[in-house]
TrEMBL record:
<comment type="similarity">
    <text>Belongs to the universal stress protein A family.</text>
</comment>
<feature type="domain" description="UspA">
    <location>
        <begin position="1"/>
        <end position="146"/>
    </location>
</feature>
<protein>
    <submittedName>
        <fullName>Universal stress protein</fullName>
    </submittedName>
</protein>
<dbReference type="InterPro" id="IPR006015">
    <property type="entry name" value="Universal_stress_UspA"/>
</dbReference>
<dbReference type="Pfam" id="PF00582">
    <property type="entry name" value="Usp"/>
</dbReference>
<dbReference type="InterPro" id="IPR006016">
    <property type="entry name" value="UspA"/>
</dbReference>
<dbReference type="InterPro" id="IPR014729">
    <property type="entry name" value="Rossmann-like_a/b/a_fold"/>
</dbReference>
């Protein structure tokens, strides 16, 4: 069944639930999990001036490292073989999705597991959906995990 699970994680509640699904699937199938955080600046377009971006990207990267550390700790505590990586994909959600799909292809993932935020309205029209882009760009199975209470969880 699944031997290599790529977990795209961003620290949100939905990605925490995706982590738990990846743990369950890995334990059931004796799979290895590779946790991936993609540092991006797509959300920053709405919140900062361009001059602030380099400093904030450094913060996003530091946050991603903390998220990956906590995910690795959870995977290890469950007895799941795992690795982690942080990638940078500045730009729109399509770039984030391309980074996830490229890693899944490179690593030979059997499954991609990720949370989905369920954005709606103008924010979704401008940003699009990373999960939608991943599903449309990959030939691999994708498990999308949604949580109705969004916010930082890791």
């Amino acid at each position: 069944m699944y031997r290599r699970i790529l977990l795209a994680i961003d620290g949100s509640r939905s990605s925490l639930h995706a982590l738990e699904q990846a743990v369950s699937m890995a334990l059931a199938t004796h799979a290895e999990v590779s946790a991936m955080f993609v540092a991006d600046d797509s959300d920053l377009f709405f919140e900062i001036r361009p001059a602030d971006r380099p400093w904030l990207m450094a913060e996003v990267i530091a946050y991603g490292e903390r998220v990956l550390t906590r995910a690795s700790e959870r995977l290890s505590a469950a007895g799941v073989r795992s690795s982690s990586q942080l990638a940078e994909a500045p730009g729109p959600p399509a770039k984030i999705a391309e980074a996830i799909v490229a890693e899944a292809d490179h690593w030979g993932a059997d499954l991609i597991v990720m949370g989905t935020h369920g954005r709606r309205g103008a924010r979704r029209m401008v940003l699009g959906s990373v999960s939608e882009h991943v599903v449309s760009k990959t030939v691999r199975p994708v498990l999308l995990v949604r949580d109705r209470w969004e916010g930082d969880a890791l």
